[in-house]
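Predict the assembly for these two chains.
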Amino acid sequence: DTAVSQTPKYLVTQMGNDKSIKCEQNLGHDTMYWYKQDSKKFLKIMFSYNNKELIINETVPNRFSPKSPDKAHLNLHINSLELGDSAVYFCASSQGWGTGFHSNQPQHFGDGTRLSIL
Amino acid sequence: QKEVEQDPGPLSVPEGAIVSLNCTYSNSAFQYFMWYRQYSRKGPELLMYTYSSGNKEDGRFTAQVDKSSKYISLFIRDSQPSDSATYLCAMVEGGGADGLTFGKGTHLIIQP
């Protein structure tokens, strides 16, 4: 079974549309993340989330919003898509949050959603 | 400023060679260090996870962290063509809130 799964794998859509990407993890982790990998393959954190706190990277436009229906899911909603949003979006999860040795256990990634804006 | 420097390559070596991959960083608050392997059209796959300075070995892979120099390394022994991929270093401070800070990745090619 895939530990972190994302759907869809590919998403092609028009500029201005609203779209969602789903992410599910079956690892029992309590923290989930969204990353963006640009055309130069550089991975950058967008959001970190557990059931207590959402941390937003300050560079992320407010057109992007994560929504978590439960602990195992963190979906990414994107409004008014722009050409610059074309990228690969990765979901990840980990066990642990906050400070201390047992916090921030390594993150496990899904295989990404390739978003292309026409 | 959280910044991680990593040579993007490509790095091409013959099969069986020892491969050395490196990253430098500027944020002395980083405490957890990771190496991920990413194949084309796949997500990053965790290879090594270390805390603070020191060495860690797992099969053909050895990770080294030198916090005094702000320098981390990944060594691959007896390299195989299946090791051809992009290798990403990543690191984070003590808390998990910020997510990982990644290097840009080194593209490794193992020639049969």
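Chain B has a mean pLDDT of 92. Chain B touches chain A through 26 residues (CB under 8 Å).
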